[in-house]
Every structure is written in C-alpha cells, then in structure tokens.
Amino acid sequence: MTAPVPYIFLPGTAREALTFYAGVFGCSARLHTLEDFGRTDGPPGAIAHGVLSDGPVTLYAADATGDQSAFHSEGLMFSLLGAAPPATLHEWFRRLAEGGRVVDDLQERPWGATDGQVVDRFGVHWLIGYEEDETS
Questions:
Q1: Entry's PANTHER family (predicted)?
Q2: Strand order in 28-33's β-sheet?
Q3: For the chain, what is the mean pLDDT?
Q4: What residues contact 42, with CB distance under 8 A and at least 6 apart?
Q5: Which domains does the chain show, CATH number per domain?
C-alpha cells in the first residue's frame, strides 16, 4: 500500500510553488501546462499537473481552473518529523519560512524532541522536527 500524496490546487502559483519546493527539498519539479494537455479552460501556460519527484517529499499541485477552489487549509499540517537529518530539517524550516510565517520556532521541547511549525508563502502549514535519538 502506498501512502497518501497531497494534491493541491493553487491560485495561479503552482509553477512558482513547485519550483520553490524543488529548491527547498533538493528535488525535481515536473510541470505540465494546460496547453500541453490540450485544455482550454484557463491560460495556456497555467499548470494543469505538476509533481515533485526524485526527492524526500512527494507533492502534486496544479493551478485552480474553472470552478475549482484554490487551496486553503486550517487544522492540517504536512508533517516532516524525522524525515531527514537535523541539519537538513533546520534548513528546510528556514527556507519554508522565507516569505511565510513562523507559527512556532523550531526548538527543543521539554520532552526532548525538537520541532516547529511554519506556514509557507503558499499557505501550506508544515510541522518539522526530530527526536534526539534519530540523530545517531
């Protein structure tokens, strides 16, 4: 069984978002436009389907067209707990915070874990952290 993969519709920012995430996570972004798919329900250069690949995060995104609603989220976080070495997680947190909003600084907690939350410039809420025993 495979894990669920988020697929988000963005308000005309899918190209920018996926390119940004590819830079943050060190992976590739494959982008297909409406024109590539022969669609006429939006601007030809709008993203009809995009995906992050070859990296630690898989995410699908497209530009909202027609009557599709753009992504808006409350009560949901994309969790990257223990997904990479601590130094990498700190870098991801820093990069995702650029132009976004830190909800809770990445810091050591009383129970020994280190975590923090950030909402990036595209409105995606991330929980990033690790347990100290994951560093060895």
A1: PROTEIN YJDN, PROTEIN YJDN-RELATED
A2: 7-10, 60-63, 47-53, 28-33
A3: 94
A4: 34, 63, 65, 66
A5: 7-63 (3.10.180.10), 78-135 (3.30.720)
